[in-house]
């Protein structure tokens, strides 16, 4: 499958409380050579996904992030404005939680189809959607972030046919702060293969992790490609 340009999600909150800058600063102080690999070249990201060797800084609760800059009135007011809608999450819980509400498929052939999540175990093998060969489509996720900022949320989508891996795509969604309204994010555009051998039922696994390597969803699903 060929990747294309994705549709941007809502505003990213990578700089919401300067947590990213703090992590980068502490990471540099603790491991000044962490961006150097054996051959002396700088590490690079693989299609937006950080490579092995990245060490995130210590995790702080939302309450700690707000209070640590309380002497800076302008920064404190900015944080409260951005995070003021999540007062109920200022309970000191450290671990962020990403709750996925639905997975959708967008295609010119039929518009948009959404499936609520989680999918029942006894329905995990059912075909979620059917596409024609040579179709261009995008997966769409609706999710909420709870308790703390989730940093560097990435996805990996792996596809198999008859037990053989035929495709894998990776990408970065971004960094998101807790908020009342769910986020909606559309993944990069894909194109289904064409030809007699391309037709049939495929199994897939969609996995989401943050930069602390926490897995927030590991979804198994199936789809079918038919003759155009």
Automatic annotation (TrEMBL):
Where are the annotated segments for Disordered?
1-51
Pfam families in alphabetical order = Rho_GDI (PF02115)
Bias class Basic and acidic residues marks the residues at 20-32
As recorded in UniProt, coiled-coil segments are none
From start to end residue, where is composition biased (Acidic residues)?
36-47
Which InterPro entries would you find in this protein's record? Answer: Ig_E-set, Rho_GDI, RhoGDI_dom_sf
Query: What keywords sit in the KW lines?
Result: Cytoplasm
Principal place of residence: cytoplasm
Q: Which SUPFAM superfamilies match?
A: E set domains
The record's subcellular location field reads: Cytoplasm
Assigned protein family? Belongs to the Rho GDI family.
Q: What is this protein called?
A: Rho GDP-dissociation inhibitor 1
């Amino acid at each position: 499958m060929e990747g294309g340009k994705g549709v941007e999600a809502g505003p990213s909150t990578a700089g919401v409380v300067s947590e990213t800058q703090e992590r980068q600063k502490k990471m540099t102080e603790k491991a000044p050579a962490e961006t150097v690999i054996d051959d002396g070249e700088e590490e690079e990201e693989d299609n937006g996904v950080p490579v092995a060797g990245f060490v995130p800084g210590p995790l702080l609760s939302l309450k700690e992030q707000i209070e640590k800059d309380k002497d800076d009135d302008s920064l404190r007011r900015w944080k409260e404005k951005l995070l003021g809608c999540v007062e109920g999450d200022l309970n000191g819980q450290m671990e962020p939680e990403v709750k996925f509400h639905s997975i959708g498929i967008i295609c010119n052939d039929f518009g948009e189809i959404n499936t609520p999540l989680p999918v029942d175990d006894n329905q995990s093998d059912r075909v979620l959607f059917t596409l024609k060969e040579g179709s261009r489509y995008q997966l769409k996720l609706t999710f909420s972030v709870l308790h703390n900022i989730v940093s560097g949320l990435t996805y990996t989508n792996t596809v198999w046919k008859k037990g053989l891996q035929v495709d894998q795509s990776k990408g970065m969604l971004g960094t998101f702060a807790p908020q009342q309204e769910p986020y909606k994010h559309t993944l990069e555009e894909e194109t289904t293969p064409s030809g007699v051998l391309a037709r049939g039922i495929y199994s897939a696994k969609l996995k989401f992790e943050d930069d602390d390597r926490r897995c927030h969803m590991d979804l198994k699903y199936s789809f079918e490609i038919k003759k155009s």
